[in-house]
Each structure stands twice: as structure tokens, then as C-alpha cells.
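Suppose a colleague, Dr. K., hands you the sequence of a protein chain of 692 amino acids and asks what its three-dimensional shape might be. Before reaching for any lab equipment, you can write down a predicted structure in C-alpha cell form. Begin with the sequence itself:
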Amino acid sequence: MRRTATCLPGLLSFSAIIVPVFARAQDADIQPTPATRPIVVIGSGLQAPPAATAYNVQTIERERLLQTGSGRLEDALSSAAGFQQFRRSDSRSSNPSAQGITLRSLGGNASSRTLVLLDGVPMADPFFGYIPLSAIAPERLASARVTRGGGAGAFGAGAVAGTIELDSANADQLGLVQASAMANNRGETELSGAVAPKLGDGFAIVSGRWDRGKGFFTTPVSQRVAASARARFDAWSAGLRAVAPLSADVELQMRGLVFDDRRTLRFTGANTSSSGQDASLRLVGRGDWAFDVLAYVQARDFSNIVISSTSFRKTLDQRATPSTGVGGKAELRPPVGDAHVLRLGADVRLNDGETLEDAYSAVTGLVTARRRAGGKTSDLGLFVEDDWTIGALVLTAGARADGWTIRKGFFAEATPTGTLTTDLAFPGRSGWQSSFRGGAVLTASGTVSLRASAYTGLRLPTLNELYRSFNVVAPRNNGGVAITATQRNPALRNEKLEGFEAGVDLTPLPGLTLNATAFDNRVRHAIANVTLGSSGNTVTRQRQNVDAVHARGIELGGRMRAGQVSLEGSLAYTDAELEASGPSAALDGKRPAQTPRWAAATTLSWRPADRWSLGVTLRHTGAQFEDDLETDLLPSATTVDAFAQIPLAGPVSMVLRGENLGGETIVTRLQDGSMDIGTPRTVWAGIRIALR
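The predicted structure, expressed as C-alpha cells, is then:
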């Protein structure tokens, strides 16, 4: 990809600056004395405040992240019932631009309504808003903290459905060397490795992963044609991370990530790719004046070729979508007494991107038009939040102000020879929007804890939603084609979350925890793909702000540990509906597209001895509608996955994994009878090496 080639030198320069700093930190005389505290480098941010549990939080530990049937992050995050991408495909067989993540059925299009952070850095693509899941290897992580709802607060803008905080593993968690090699029954392979030496009181980690395979047919046998292709995938990522102590209470953290992901979707020649280069610096102080200062830069690119389902010629070449995300965050926790944890801070994110596309005739195969579209968005947030502990009661309250801009939007179309036929410049907009949140946690006894919270938040429309139109062409069962044309909307408003919830956490017996949460969340001005009408074989939609997506429901969770056996699970029931009027009035009372009513996941694990691990996961996703008008229903799906690690000799273990062992047909797309399906029964085997 062009973006990879041009931005890699910048990442190398970044590393060249950091490595000497790291080396000087190791050479510094920082030996502990009776007057100083020992240096502890953990490579993470500041500790979560006392009232974090006022919101519905589920932590997925490293052990669970590593024990999945697929070995992929989205599989592990599905342990939190209600987690969903726009479609049911995983990051081997889906279009990357559909990898938007949401919680609580607050979706409706492919953009992420959940804020995903990796070591504090927002991971959403600056142009589309999707999450590059294939680039975030679970084996590099220490934990994933899922907060459903909760509003923006100190997290940042974008958290209208919740927040997922991913923390990288440190050298102690990884060990000196870890490596694995896996292959499945289709001959696909997965290679992963990391080296994590300790350097003085700090550490460095170099890691990499490579996944490749011929894939499976996403098209059912009855609908395949000569041009039907397997969902081929070839993805790699490499990471560099270093943590160095600068003093007894201050540490410097550096992280770099480079990735490239190439897939084939449905037809021969329908190739898609995404790539990126990320770099971040973080300074964390854990003294009396605790602070967390973060800066990052992201360069991303995306390409996609659309193949006609009738002539099987190229109809669109989205040849490049270069985008850049730049931002940072600063948080200060001044000493205000043992009963209070006060957080003051600011964060900023600047997005800049454009798409470069060539349209082709499905009949002649010649270019018919050349298009460019893009723009810039920014968000500056200021926040304050205080947690006050009064005996068994913890109170929290916070406020946030976001200054946002949407500017320099444009759309241009030219003939194949370069003569402009359309040249639009859209007016810029800006404003301030406030958010508030507050809650309470009461430890009623040693076994019962009660919590309640209310919150607001916001999400800016993505550059893709604002300025890019697209068509989806799918075959009909009668031999024709169905065309869905989705139009841009440069006038989209910001989404705003309003929500409240209450819950109880129980520990009735040692090793047994249970929790329940009832919630009511409403996203006002929610952006949805709204059907405007149809003509012949073409359905026209536009991205529009509907009045709201209103979701109410119950979330249950539990974990039991009895010796070497553990059982954990979660269940989410969500009654979600659209509130719509005016041009979108036909959607009023309907469920948002791609949002199931029921979702559940449970995992039974057994660890009979050191390095032994056996587990089985049962997951259920309820029925959901493909479209906004509830025309095509995707049936429910129940899958069984399994994982086993068995020590062989020394540091070597055998690993066995199974995906969809019951052979469930997982329908991922359904339109006028045209269907795509998800991962079939798949069995993996390989070895894992771990040197401490």
C-alpha cells in the first residue's frame, strides 16, 4: 500500500528518537535507597478510580483472551454478551470497513459507537471509524476492560455505546520468549512470536504475527458461480514496545505498530486491503501529583475492488483511502485528600482523510468516472471528575466539554480523461457540546454491592458517513441483481447519548460472583442508513440522523471458580427500537439493522496442572434484521468453540482449537435471497513455546 511505504520511515525515525532515551534511562543511577521507594514499572496507565465500578464493567483477563477457538480478538471480546460488529463475519472474511463495534444494540450502520482504546490510544480508522481487529493480536494483551454505556467522561468522545480498554502485556506476563505455530484443516496458518527482555528496571517487546490462508466459501453452494471465490486472507502485524523508568514514580512508554491486511470477498478479483502505522508516547507519573500524558499519530490506508455479480467485471476500484489521526491526552490527579480522587484533563483528536475511486462499466470494463471525497474533523475535550469515598459509599460526578469542527469537506468527479464534471465544497461547521456523568457504589455488605449511574456522551460523524457514497450489488435468486445505493450526507449532526442504569454485584460464596444491570440508553440524532425509495432493481438509501435509537434491557454476568475448574458467562437482552419522523418516519418503532435481541456466551475451563488448559465456549446470537425496513431476517446462530493446551516437553506445548464445532450455518448477509455465510467447522493444531 502507498501509505505503508511512505510512512514507515517516519515510524523508524520515531524509534530512532526513543531508543536512545530508553538507553539513557537504563544507564541512569536510580538505585533505591532508604529515602526512595523501589521502582515498579508495570507499563500501564494510572489505576482505575474507585468509582469505576459504578458503571457496568466486565474485565476479560489474559487467560481468557488466549483461550479462543479462532485465536482472534473479536472472538475473545464476544465473552461480553452484547458485543457485536456490524456483521457476524470475523476479521478474516469481512470487509474491514464493516468492522465497527457496538454494545447494547445501539448500532445501525458500520461505524463504531464503542470507543476502543489500546494503551489509551483510540484505534478507530480516521476515515471509516472501523477497528483494525486483525492488527491487535490477543497474545500481546494483558486484559480487556469492557464498559457498557458509561458516557464519554475521561475516556473521550465516541463512547456512545461504551468503551473497550485494551492494555498491552508487560515482560513478566509475556516471558522472555513466546512463539506459536498453528495450522487448520484447510491448510491455513497462523504464526506468532514475541521477545520481551528486561532492560534494567524497564523492558522492551518486539512482536509479530502472520495469518494467511485460502479461506472458505462465504457463498452457499446453491448460489456459487464460476467467479465465486474463497475468502482468502493474508495479514501481518509487527509491534515494538518499550517501557523505561525515569524516576521512582515516573515511567516513559513507547509503542509502535505496523500492519497490512489483504482479503478476497465473494468473487475472484474482489480484493480489499487495509494497512497502518501507529506510534505513541506516554509519560505516566504515580507520585502524589499523579499524571498521564499521551501523544500519538496514526497513518492508515484502505482499498477495495467491487466486482459485478452479473458480468463479474470490476465496477469500482477504491484504490486508496489515505487518512491520518493525530491526538493526545493529558490527565492530572492532584492530591486532595485520601477520600477524593480528582481527575483534571484534556484530550484532542484530529482526523484527516480522503478516498480515491475509479468507477468502471460492468459491460465494457472501462473507466467511466474518477472520484475524490474527504475532509477533516477535530475534537478537543476538557474534563473534570471526582470520586468521593464516604465509608462504604463511593460517589462520582464529572463534566466534559467538547469543542468540535467538521471542515474542508469536498466531493469531486471527473471524466476518465480528468475533466471535472462535479466539484463540490461543503461548508464547515463547529460548536461546543457538554456531557455529564455521575454515579454511586454502595458496599452494603461483604457479599452485596449496589450501583447506579447516569451519563451522556457524543460521537462525531465519520468522514465516510459525511462525504462518501457507495453501492452494493448482489445477485437475486431469480437471476437478476439487487443494487443498494447509499448516499453521503454532509449535513449530519453529532450523535448524543443519554442513559442511566442500576445494578447489583453479589459474592454469595467464595469464588462465586454474580452481577445484574438494568439500563435505559438513548442515542439522539443516531446516524442510520435510511431507505428513501426503490426503482426497478435499485434501492436508494441515505445516511440520516433519525430522532433516536432507544435501547432498554438487562445484562447478567457471573463467574465461578472451584479449584481447577472455572465457569463464566454473560447474557444480554436488549429491546432496541428506532424513534423516527419526517423522511425516516417509516422506521419508527423498528429495530435498528443488525441488532439482535438476545446474546449470550459461557465458557467452562479446566486447568488440571501447570500449563494445562482445557475449555469449551458456547455462544448464542439472536435473530437480527439485515436492513432498516426489517425485510430480510438473519436467523439466530448458536456455536460451540473449544481450546486445549497440553504440555509436551520443556517449554513446548501442543495447542488444539476448534471453531463452530457444531457446524452451524451462520448467515452474515441476506438480501433478496442472496446470502453470505460465516466460519464453518474449523479445527486447528500446533505448538506453543514459552520461555520465562
